Amino acid sequence: MTKVDRRVLKSQEAIKKAILELMAEKNFDDITIRDISDRANVNRGTIYLHYLDKYDLLDKIIEEHISNLSELCQSASEMSFQEGNYVWFEYFAEHHLFFSIMLNTKSAAHFRSRFLDLVVQEYKVEVDVTEGKNQGLNEEVILQFFGAAVVGAVEWWFRNGMPVPPRVMAEQTGILLDRNF
Predict the structure, then answer these.
(1) Is-contact 89 126, C-beta < 8 A?
(2) Structure confidence at residue 180 (pLDDT)
(3) CA–CA separation, 103 vs 125, rounded Å?
(4) What's the 3-state SS for 39-78?
(5) Distance of CA 10 to the CA centre of its chain
(6) How far is it, in rounded angstroms, from Cα 166 to Cα 124?
(7) Which pTM was predicted?
(8) For residues 55 and 16, what is the distance between their CA atoms, to the nearest angstrom?
(9) Measured in Å, how far apart are the chain's first and last C-alpha atoms?
(10) Are 147 and 120 in contact (CB under 8 A)?
(11) Among 18, 64, 102, 104, whose CB has the most other CB atoms within 10 angstroms?
């Protein structure tokens, strides 16, 4: 594994933060590379050194968070939903800027779709339609229902300024999931 220069990491973090801050202020389509470079205090060439364009930059940020969430799911695979949700909601709170923008702007439909896909994929191993309370139900209907519920609850949480602490969201959504899986 190659070690990345700290200056490169610092520039990339500044660029990522800049685009997210700009997305909080204006429509993604109206953001220019110049806007990003000015906000990040880097040259335009520095952005192009790491990203093809603003779309590539946003895609890479989205993929980074989806990957991190997927890794968190793997590390929490032996936990109850309630315990596992603590991990997720702490991550959400830690990356508040990203999630509040991705779940509250029109230009973030791609993220919402990827997030829903991740949630459905992670719950797929939990669904048993051969016995118990879900016996005879359609697996896809169950997955879409609970996936949309989780994504919707996270959207509500960010849209309303995180009105309850991450731990409370994790506990309550976890209890609901534990009751149904």
Answers:
(1) no
(2) 81
(3) 26
(4) HHCCCHHHHHHHCCCHHHHHHHHHHHHHHHHHHHHHHCCC
(5) 22
(6) 24
(7) 0.82
(8) 12
(9) 39
(10) yes
(11) 102
